[in-house]
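2.7 Reproducibility. Because tokenized structures are sensitive to small changes in the input, we list the exact sequence used for DUF2971 domain-containing protein, including any N-terminal residues retained from the expression construct. No trimming or masking was applied before prediction.
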Amino acid sequence: MYFIMIGTKPTTYIKAGFMILYKYLTYEVGYSILENNSIAFSSPESFNDPFESEAACSFFPGKAKINLSTQKKIRDAAVQQFKKSYGVLSLTRQPLNPLMWSHYAGEHTGMVIGIDVSEECFTSEIENTIPVQFGNVIYTHTKPSNLFLDTLSEKLNITQSFSFDRDHIETYQRAFLYKASCWSYEEEVRIVKSIPLPLNPEKFITLKSGNFKIINAFSRCNLIDLPLFLMPKGVIKEVYIGLRSGIHDAEYNAELSLEIVNTIRSSQPQTAIFGCKIKENTWELDRFDLEKEALRQLGET
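Resulting structure tokens (single pass, no recycling of outputs):
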């Protein structure tokens, strides 16, 4: 997918084709997403990076009549508000990154799901606080702490910012898109939706940001309300099965491969399904058509 800007201001976009971004998942979570066609927009509080949203707010100018201790309290409160009021879908451009498979897909036992993010539910500036086309994560060696470049006449209402506001793009970037450079291997792209609390577990809710089902889930041993975004049918375009999923045990397991294909196709009939394997003479992964290889091994056409 690419976007063509019409006119002198970047206000109108035309989508051409589609673009797939990827989500690394454990086996259980991946199959749940495929079966229910829904995916979690998680609170930054639950992320594995303790620095999430820490760049959200900078201190006031030195001449402000507020001491540093009070400034810090105000800043910390704003950071926590960002973390609690929004859900983030973290995606990546690369489905065959061995390190990502190790960290996020059950050490190669899980799967990667490819999602067509050119759908309006991901690109809309009305439904998304940060649409996908503005969601490239910014990796830096030092945390930004300077004041914003723009002085805004109107403050951002953190708890009611359902739509993307170009006047506050620096605020959004600081809150959700800045990360330390050590994470750059993830090549992350984010979509952010406003999901204000309180939520009702096991309930369906409709917000300006979309339709959600709220479930109970554990995060670092704590029970949390997890919003699952109900995606349009057909947005899941690809599935990659990990090389330690069992399909390569001892020798290629064609029967298991076909079982996996049939299970996925029962809920996602149009999805391309790939297996992963190690490339010869490199440190890279390669993909192959899981169904075609299984049928070849079984002597079927």
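DSSP finds seven helices and 15 strands in the chain.
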